[in-house]
Design a protein that fits this description.
By secondary structure, the protein is an alpha+beta fold. The protein contains five helices and five strands, in the order E-E-E-H-H-E-E-H-H-H. The chain starts with 5 loop residues before the first strand and ends in an 8-residue tail after the last helix.
Length: 187
């Protein structure tokens, strides 16, 4: 059965909900999007613990708030388990690829190639978030990772309403994607 849960996620906390269950236990979740918050409660309702809920919230944010969170990037998770006081900090930041080097954004004359570090394949890092979610689930979670990812998968498959900010960001990035050339190979 559910114990008292307390979770703190280092995410933009603008939407929070507290829930009291029939047995008197309580849970509170804050995230940047109501669907992500609901995902956390869904997983708690299925018997997951605070770490499973953190995976569900994070993965759902990657779908519904990709400009601030996403599988292609990274994040931090600061978690506290009320029942035994256990606390952990997970660093899931992205990292530069091993092939990255000091001159990769410079032309033959040593001048910076505009926007090369921002747009296209050479702007990408090795994502840390997927590994962090697997780590959270396997080391601290109660449910299988596939269960904790279901709310995010459902949001991606069925769609969700987007706001004006999301629409504007999508438009900006879609133009970049359409206009991105294949990067030259570096040795």
């Amino acid at each position: 059965m559910l114990k008292k849960y307390c979770a703190t996620l280092l995410l933009t906390a603008v939407f929070g909900v507290a829930q009291v269950y029939a047995d008197g236990t309580r849970a509170a979740i804050a995230s940047a999007h109501p669907l992500a918050t609901a995902a956390g409660f869904e997983i708690l309702d299925k018997g997951g613990n605070v770490f499973d809920a953190a995976v569900a919230v994070s993965a759902t944010l990657a779908v519904v708030e990709p400009s601030g969170s996403g599988l292609g990037g990274g994040g931090y998770w600061l978690l506290h388990r009320e029942q035994d006081g256990f606390e952990t900090m997970i660093d899931g930041r992205e990292k530069a690829p091993l092939a990255a080097h000091q001159a990769m954004y410079l032309d033959k004359a040593g001048k910076v190639i505009p926007r090369l570090s921002l747009d296209g394949a050479l702007a990408a890092a090795i994502p840390g978030m997927p590994a962090a979610l697997v780590h959270l689930s396997e080391k601290y979670g109660r449910l299988p990772l596939a269960d904790s990812l279901q709310p995010a998968i459902r949001a991606a498959q069925t769609g969700f309403a987007i706001g004006e900010r999301y629409r504007k960001l999508l438009k900006v990035r879609s133009e970049v994607i359409k206009n991105t050339r294949r990067p030259r190979r570096y040795s």
